[in-house]
């Protein structure tokens, strides 16, 4: 499975969201996800598309795990 | 078990036609079991060969059922049987194929059959929601074959090793998937994926079925996104057909302003909500070939207006792959499904090439890992008088053969320039290729070369000569000229149109050919296109044509119908363009009018033409339907749509003169009358209808005069203008009133897509004649 990072939704404009992880902001498209997404939700972003929503608790655990496994990935530059 | 008590006999049966890759051998096996017949069956180069031994009455029932109950995809052309001596062999077996020269026909690609469709939506089935379900009665064929014989190792399924379950089906003669070459399942077969234009997987098909991928694709479309979908013969670009904004967006990105988009609906019930559909049209739509059928629009429809603006028809199709069924069912009323290409490029079919070509157009790609070996566009059909008329003959019909009136040497015919197809012949069969496109750039020419190579390979035809258009500047002509060591025959464009219509109707001898066309290179160097020919395959005489007018600016006059309106007005005596008050000239500057007037006065850059298509353009402009076009035939198509909205029997006058032994049809009186109506404010639809009536009447009048000269009673109608339903119907009726026998196209398009067939038959006939005369000379 490809690597996908949970991010927190900062804003929504139509089908485009801005999401954030550790201070890095990214734009992503909502075009392929079936469920409604709101500001503050955790979502999985891959290749510029939101591919699923994540439960907050689960997201935080995943982020912790990722920090432990690959310290550099948490401070990803772009 | 069968108890036989009559005398036992043995027969040997040869079956020809499309009988391989269609479940024919298992069908014979089951049939033999039903009648208690022993023997064997095998594929041969010519088709299927079998021997059966049993009681006489059972054998005759067996023989009858071979034709009567053949599998749905089979198309039997002949069954030959003979009695041979009894061997006492027990049981019935399916023997491996025998080698040798292959002349069996490869089956065209086919939509999912009823049985597979049922399994596709059955949660208990192991292929539930699997987008690559197929069996011997359905699935891809022509598009995945890389070589012959038709066998899994010579298809693009080669890389998928069958799992134990699939293998068991494949090897069981009683199974529907016995020797179904593309057989696959979620465990072992191809998978779908959602990719971005760099080829990155946005989402992976978990568990083989790829249901998440499918849902994501549906979501993209429901939100107005543009999805590239890999079909059987190439990529489509899809958007929700009911979403005006999405359709507008696709037009913008594809840079296609007005040409109608084809749409795909999940079932006939949905189609009924936006278009009217006769029984014949329903049969065509639902057939295994899955063509696009032109259907009259309903008054109020949920379909976005930008799908087919200024057009009375929608081009509609039903799903042609399991993936389409999965995408559409319960999700959409219809999807726009337009060929995945940039304008003028051939349809994209290789994955990396598709992503490159469509990168700026599609948001995402719904792709899969079963390769398309041969690209083919969708076929387009229009029904008139209850029978189908091909506007484009492609996927689903290729490489089905067309029977010719006589056997002939093998010919390769390379067609014309627009809507190019090629044709290969063998014995008394012609194989017309899929639609290649407009031969205007190196990409379409390459596509033509690939197509020729592939057809020669799978049909095992080595042409003895090549036929091409008389036009020296067509890319197809240049291609034919460059073929080494092949004798060439140049065929006049309209003679080829005429011959294609005669050949598909199995006509021999001579006939009258009415060829109404856009443009074709004439024998005298002028541009022909409104021709009344007399002759057969070997030769023709130009008995009449439409009056010559100038094409001011050459090709520009084709793109800008108002130029043709001015040319006709000039011809009718109008000399002051500056003062003309016509709405189609509203945005034509004084300077440009002056320039056009000088062009016409001096005959500079204004070649003469007898084109019928240009007359339709001129009238379309005069009625302010269309003064500039963005796709071929647009002015005439919209004029026809306008004419269909009115009913009148009135005709405009015309006259016929004789000049240098030829009959010249002069439509100036019609235009003068039309201008009077225009001044009187007669509804435009009425004028458009009157013009159509007058063309039909003029055609019948010309044929009558030609019959008086030579007694010929058979008329063939061909050429691109005869895609016009109103014109064909009017002409047919008037010719029938005069007791003419009229033949139209049913198997190939009347436009340039059918040209190669005519070229091939003419060249074949010339060759035969030449051989006969050398034989005679040798006897002397
Ligand atoms: Zn099937
Ligand atoms: Zn399998
Ligand atoms: Zn033509």
UniProtKB/TrEMBL annotation, chain A:
Gene3D superfamilies noted in UniProt: 2.30.30.140
One example of a Gene Ontology biological process annotation: protein maturation
GO MF terms held by the record: carbon dioxide binding; iron ion binding
PROSITE patterns noted in UniProt: HUPF_HYPC (PS01097)
Family, as annotated: Belongs to the HupF/HypC family.
Protein name (Swiss-Prot/TrEMBL): Hydrogenase assembly chaperone hypC/hupF
UniProtKB/TrEMBL annotation, chain B:
Keyword presence, Iron: no
BP-aspect Gene Ontology terms: protein maturation
Protein name from the UniProt record: Carbamoyltransferase
Pathway named in the protein's UniProt entry: Protein modification; [NiFe] hydrogenase maturation
Domain Acylphosphatase-like: from-to ranges: 10-96
Keywords assigned: Hydrolase, Ligase, Metal-binding, Zinc, Zinc-finger
InterPro entries assigned to the protein according to its UniProt record, in alphabetical order: Acylphosphatase-like_dom, Acylphosphatase-like_dom_sf, Acylphosphatase_CS, ATPase_NBD, Carbamoyltrans_HypF-like, Carbamoyltransferase_HypF, DHBP_synth_RibB-like_a/b_dom, HypF_C
GO molecular function, one term: ligase activity
Reactions this protein catalyses: an acyl phosphate + H2O = a carboxylate + phosphate + H(+); C-terminal L-cysteinyl-[HypE protein] + carbamoyl phosphate + ATP + H2O = C-terminal S-carboxamide-L-cysteinyl-[HypE protein] + AMP + phosphate + diphosphate + H(+)
